[in-house]
Structure formats: C-alpha cells, structure tokens
Amino acid sequence: MTTNTIIQLVRGALEAIRPPAAYINGLLILCSMIKRPGLSVMISVAKIISALERRGINTNDMSDGRMNMVNVVVQETVSEIYRAIKEDMNTQVSLQQGSLMVTGTVNTPMGPFPVTSTNITTGHGYACSQ
Question: Are 107 and 86 in contact (CB under 8 A)?
C-alpha cells in the first residue's frame, strides 16, 4: 500500500463522516459588518412610532400637554429588547469534525512529499453579533 493510497483512504473516510462547512472569506464578513450599522434604539423607535401614526394611532402629546405614554411604552420595550440582545445574547460557533482541511508539501531527501491533515475533534470558533 503506497502513501498516496493511505492518504486517499483517510481523506475519503473523513469526507464520508460529514461534509466540511462552507468557507466564508473574512474580508466578505468585514464588508458586511461595515455595511450594516448595527442596532439603534432611536431609529427603531422612530420607525415604530411612524408606523403607529400611519395606522391612525395618536402619538403626539396629549391635548393637556402631557407626554403620550404610547411613545414611552414603545421606547422602553425597544430599549429592553436591544439591551437583552447586546448583553444577554450568546452566539456559539463550533467547528465540526473534518471541517478544516490543510494540504501542503514537505521537502524530504527523497523529494517533495504531499501532506494532508484535518481536524478530528470539534472545537470552538469566534463569531460577531452586531
């Protein structure tokens, strides 16, 4: 049995276990994060209040000058939702078996030798929630 045959058998066994996760270029992720400004309580509140006005719900100050409590409820609700997303949310990423493949060539006295490796255990990765 040759070395290349063994490499092909191991690679075939690992590919049969589970296909690797799709690779996303880091530059593409960075460009996507720049394009999206992230969460804004005030922008969301303004959009919700505008939608309420279009549906005929009074969002102006009351006739006696008091603040309209609908606006307060909308802002407090959105603020708490965004606080929970930013502070309580947990994003987890895992690397599945066989999801990382590394290939290379090693120079030996007998000439170049192909090397292939992969992860055989699961692991943790990094993610960004914005």
Answer: no
